[in-house]
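Researcher: Good morning. I'm working through a list of sequences from a screen, and I'd like to move beyond sequence-only analysis. For each chain I'm collecting a predicted structure so we can compare shapes side by side. This is the next one on the list. No need for commentary yet; just the structure.
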Amino acid sequence: MYFLIISGMSGAGKSRAVASMEDLGYYCVDNLPVALIPTFAEVCLNAAERYERVALCTDVRAGGNFDQLFVSLDAIKAMGCEVEILFLDTDTSTLINRFKETRRKHPLMENGIGMLTAIQQERSLLEGIRGKADYVIDTTRLSAAGLRERIINIFSSSDRDELFEVAVESFGFKYGIPPESDLVFDVRFLPNPYYEISLREHNGTEQAVRDYVFQNGTADALMSHLGALVDFLLPRYVSEGKTTVSICIGCTGGKHRSVAIAEALGKHIREGGYRVSMLHRDYNR
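Model: Good morning. Structure tokens for this chain:
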């Protein structure tokens, strides 16, 4: 079993690092008391198939007692666990600017202590764990996407493309636009099988409905434009560090036109080498 300890300066990007590890399939715990790490490791070992890779985030919120952390890490190593430490650092001026931008208070700013003094105290408290870190990432000039890329390059055998998934969803506007949508396309201008009595009770996954929707070439022209658009956008979403994009296709009831176009778009995206999940939200209503 592999344990990654994530630590570092407040404001250096630990929360984003934890999110990236979750995307890589790690079971993540934030701010677990360090004295409980061996007990937690025992639980994980008893369910090894579920907790093969674990990331634990710890910092000055644990009270600065990193001697106890190293005792706990030695204990889980004795259990046969592999342990590595990732430390995130950032220069002081950048940390000050980040706290000002987010209007957050540094966790050590108590009893009248100013931000600069709090950061200096934290750096001193974390000196020991930084010195024992297997990986140190300086996030001073890294964007959120840049930090994610660094983490994936270090801890994953997969490319970012393999972690990326496109969710294609059909829906009916009469039932509301899916709140999770990133991109929404309205296809109510296409021929509507609802008005063809023989097709009314069928849906857009069936060939007869699809043929009706694509009958006059308008749907083919639409697919040409949609295909070019997603071919342009998806690589850029990947490079930006997104893990999922939700593309929603809507018609009036979500049963015929939107389903047919969503199926065609999903096929196009899948043929481009991306993982695709399909959902037809309203076609059984």
